[in-house]
């Protein structure tokens, strides 16, 4: 009988797969408390490295054409489809649900990438405007990316909540530092393997695994993070992050609904450009 | 050539200022619970205009209760089209009483009558007229299929555009079906109190608009009131951050319009005379008491000397003095405290080695005045290049390449406004894309319109005001 090759679950920062600089890991178990894996337990330094990588990737990603971003998001769906089986296994194992239910979650997650892929080059049309100024001026309003977004996806979902948080952020031209669900982190790392092979530039999405309550305050206080999706934070952590986030007026949002353009627009800024009309 | 103008003062006979004002709660002027009052003065003469009731927490509570009751019983139940008609009425009455508003605003604020008459008041009325038409079209506002008001909105406004900021706040809130408790600035409450009278004349149901006068503590009581659903604030970034902390974990949403340090970028191909006019209106409009002022002038090095020479010549023509005089360009600084702040930051410019220049001008003896001032030889590290002065003081820096201009322009925690001056269309669009600011004026500056969103990136605030985007911030489902 052949002994199978297990995967080492590492972080995903700047397109590379480092272990935590702290050397720490934490134990992840299945629904029946059996040992499954020792993913990295990211440190403050890892989070800061991830923010640096995200900031570095922002210019290229936000400056890429919307069509280009759209194709890359679609490519992510393609890469996930090919790994569908691995996602199903991880979800079924950790969440303790049937393979059929797990498959449903995977399909929805892949379809979410396709949905947001289509939004990349439509959001400006739908949410932007030209404004009827009463005077000899022309002006228009366009949404653009807010910058580096810290993401705490829903804790109870291995993959779907994760994708529903990341896809709108990167579709809008932002870069992201994601802290995966503490209990269900495996899909996040497998997702990063799909991202790494999908033409998504390194640093656009960075994924950390670890202890949410340890990492959240550092994300809230980091002055180079522009916004936070706080969906997966407890009430207490949400409040703490909002208080420290006020130091640079981070845009902090929590979402109950998924797959609406509002999830993209929450992490976009409206810019209005004026010019006189005349001969 | 010098131009001499005979004085052309606007008459103050049109305004009727009471010796004392109460709070406007539930459709009536009522006395505050305590006996404390504060004076509002004319900053151009230092004469007391009126004694204003001071609202403490219990008064704020009374106003919130009135607003909640009006929301539940009347305003949220009214057919949207009827709601809109009240806003149309308000717009019309403001137009009818426009001169009265303009004179009163000039007296209470110190800004030139030319500006209150031609900009503040007409724009405020236009804001109500614009939003009136939205009231029955909210499902097209981009806030989803089921747009709903937040409920009771607490609104806190600054002293630089007292009536206009009131309009920016109250008009969209009412159009979307919210009721409001508004706190005007401590130094400029009079036009808000005249607006209360407009609400009465319009027959606006009692409690839909409530106005509480006071200071920072009054504002804080409003922000922290448990029955407020949303905060809308315009003011300093420091206070804005305090509000963000205060509402953390409460579920209240907020729109914040905060400070700025706007870069005004002049490329070497810009039409220089037109540019000089734009620079002047960018920094000296409203005495520079403008959050989106073009207070950092970034000039391409090869046209610096020529531009500064023309700019100085133009600034020498600015008429500083009696705000009620129709010829006046630059009025009084709004308060002694603001004047002290302008002096303090400006003197850091001298200390840090920048070169100060002001035209020769005689300032009135009474009142608060500061001459139009430019600093050349400013570096990015200087306080006058980093901090918002909120006065008629321009900091001039230079650049060589377009990328350097963008890098310098974006080198600030603020992100409210920026200006670009060039004849080259592709360069305008390139620069506009690179600049991290919510409003970009190309070959113009300091233009505003009710149909156009306004608001900042980064530490200049949260959300937009004006246009469809500003409207959506007053709707659940459109909240961000």
Topology diagram in text:
The complex is a heterodimer of chains A (279) and B (480).
Chain A: E1 28-29, E2 35-37, H1 44-63, H2 66-82, H3 84-95, H4 99-119, H5 123-127, E3 129-131, E4 137-145, E5 148-151, H6 160-171, E6 175-179, H7 186-196, E7 205-208, H8 212-221, E8 227-229, H9 235-245, E9 251-253, H10 261-265, E10 268-276
Parallel strand pairs in A: 5-6, 5-8, 6-7, 8-9
Antiparallel strand pairs in A: 1-2, 3-4, 4-10
Helix pairs in contact in A: 2-4, 3-4, 3-7, 4-6, 8-9
Chain B: E1 20-21, E2 23-25, E3 28-30, E4 37-41, E5 48-53, H1 57-75, H2 80-96, H3 98-109, H4 113-132, E6 148-149, E7 152-156, H5 162-175, E8 179-183, H6 190-202, E9 209-211, H7 216-223, E10 230-234, H8 237-246, E11 253-257, E12 263-266, H9 272-284, E13 296-300, H10 304-315, H11 336-351, E14 355-357, E15 373-376, H12 383-386, E16 393-399, H13 402-410, E17 417-421, H14 425-434, E18 439-442, E19 461-462, H15 467-472, E20 475-476
Parallel strand pairs in B: 1-5, 7-8, 7-10, 8-9, 10-11, 12-13, 12-17, 13-16, 15-16, 17-18
Antiparallel strand pairs in B: 2-3, 4-5, 6-20, 11-19, 14-15
Helix pairs in contact in B: 1-7, 2-4, 2-6, 3-4, 4-5, 9-10
């Amino acid at each position: 009988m052949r002994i199978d090759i297990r995967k080492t679950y590492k972080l995903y920062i700047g397109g590379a797969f480092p272990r935590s600089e702290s050397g720490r890991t934490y134990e992840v178990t299945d629904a029946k408390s059996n040992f499954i894996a020792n993913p990295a337990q990211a440190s403050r330094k890892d989070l800061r490295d991830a923010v640096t990588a995200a900031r570095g990737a922002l210019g290229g990603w936000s400056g890429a054409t919307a069509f280009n971003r759209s194709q890359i998001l679609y490519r992510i769906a393609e890469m996930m489809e090919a790994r569908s089986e691995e996602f199903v296994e991880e979800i079924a194992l950790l969440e303790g649900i049937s393979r059929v239910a797990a498959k449903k979650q995977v399909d929805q997650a892949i379809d979410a990438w396709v949905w947001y892929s289509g939004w990349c080059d439509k959001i400006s049309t739908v949410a932007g405007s030209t404004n009827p100024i009463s005077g000899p001026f022309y002006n228009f309003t366009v949404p653009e990316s807010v910058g580096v977004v810290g993401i705490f996806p829903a804790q109870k979902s291995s993959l779907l909540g994760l994708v529903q948080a990341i896809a709108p952020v990167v579709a809008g031209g932002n870069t992201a530092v994601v802290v995966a669900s503490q209990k269900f982190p495996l899909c996040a790392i497998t997702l990063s393997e799909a991202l790494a092979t999908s033409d998504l530039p390194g640093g656009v999405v960075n994924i950390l695994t670890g202890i949410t309550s340890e990492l959240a305050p550092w994300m809230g206080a980091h002055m180079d993070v522009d916004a936070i999706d706080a969906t997966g934070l407890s009430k207490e952590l949400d409040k703490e992050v909002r208080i420290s986030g006020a130091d640079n007026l981070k845009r902090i949002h929590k979402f109950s609904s998924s797959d609406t353009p509002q999830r993209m627009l929450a992490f976009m800024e409206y810019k209005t450009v004026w010019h006189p009309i005349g001969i | 050539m010098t131009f001499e103008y005979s004085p052309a003062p606007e008459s103050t006979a049109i305004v009727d200022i009471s010796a004392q004002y109460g709070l406007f709660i539930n459709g009536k002027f009522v006395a505050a619970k305590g006996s404390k009052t504060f004076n509002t003065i004319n900053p151009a003469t230092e004469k007391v205009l009126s004694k204003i009731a001071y609202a403490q927490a219990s008064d704020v509570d009374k106003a919130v209760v009135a607003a909640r009751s009006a929301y539940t019983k009347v305003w949220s139940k009214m057919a949207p089209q009827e709601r809109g008609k009240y806003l149309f009425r308000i717009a019309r009455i403001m137009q009818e009483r426009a001169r009265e508003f303009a004179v009163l605003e000039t007296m209470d604020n110190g800004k030139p009558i030319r500006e209150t008459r031609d900009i503040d008041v007409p724009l405020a009325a236009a804001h109500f007229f614009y939003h009136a038409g939205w009231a029955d079209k909210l499902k097209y506002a981009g806030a989803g299929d089921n747009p709903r008001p937040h409920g009771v909105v607490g609104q806190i406004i600054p002293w630089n555009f007292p009536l206009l900021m009131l309009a920016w706040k109250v008009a969209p809130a009412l159009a979307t079906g919210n009721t409001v408790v508004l706190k005007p600035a401590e130094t400029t409450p009079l036009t808000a109190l005249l607006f209360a009278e407009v609400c009465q004349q319009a027959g606006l149901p009692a409690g839909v608009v409530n106005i509480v006068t006071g200071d920072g503590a009054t504002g804080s009581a409003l922000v922290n009131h448990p029955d407020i659903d949303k905060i809308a604030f315009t003011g300093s970034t420091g206070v804005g951050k305090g509000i963000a902390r205060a509402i953390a974990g409460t579920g209240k949403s907020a729109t914040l319009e905060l400070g700025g340090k706007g870069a005004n970028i002049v490329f070497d191909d810009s039409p220089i005379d037109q540019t000089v006019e734009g620079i002047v209106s960018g920094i000296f409009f409203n005495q520079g008491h403008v959050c989106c002022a073009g207070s950092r002038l970034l000039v391409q090095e090869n046209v610096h000397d020529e531009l500064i020479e023309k700019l100085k010549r133009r600034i020498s023509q600015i008429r500083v003095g009696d705000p009620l005089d129709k010829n006046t360009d630059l009025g009084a600084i709004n308060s002694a405290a603001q004047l002290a702040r302008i002096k303090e930051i400006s003197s850091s410019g001298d200390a840090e080695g920048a070169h100060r220049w002001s035209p020769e001008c005689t300032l009135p003896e009474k009142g608060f005045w500061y001459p139009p001032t430019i600093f050349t030889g400013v570096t990015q590290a200087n306080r006058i290049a980093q901090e918002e002065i909120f006065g008629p003081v321009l900091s001039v820096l230079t650049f060589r390449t377009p990328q350097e201009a963008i890098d310098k322009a974006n080198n600030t925690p603020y992100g409210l406004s920026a200006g670009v001056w060039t004849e080259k269309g592709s360069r305008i669009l390139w620069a506009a894309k690179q600049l991290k600011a919510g409003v970009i004026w190309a070959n113009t500056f300091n233009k505003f319109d009710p149909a156009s969103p306004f608001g900042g990136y980064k530490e200049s605030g949260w959300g937009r005001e004006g246009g469809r985007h500003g409207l959506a911030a007053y709707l659940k489902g459109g909240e961000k």
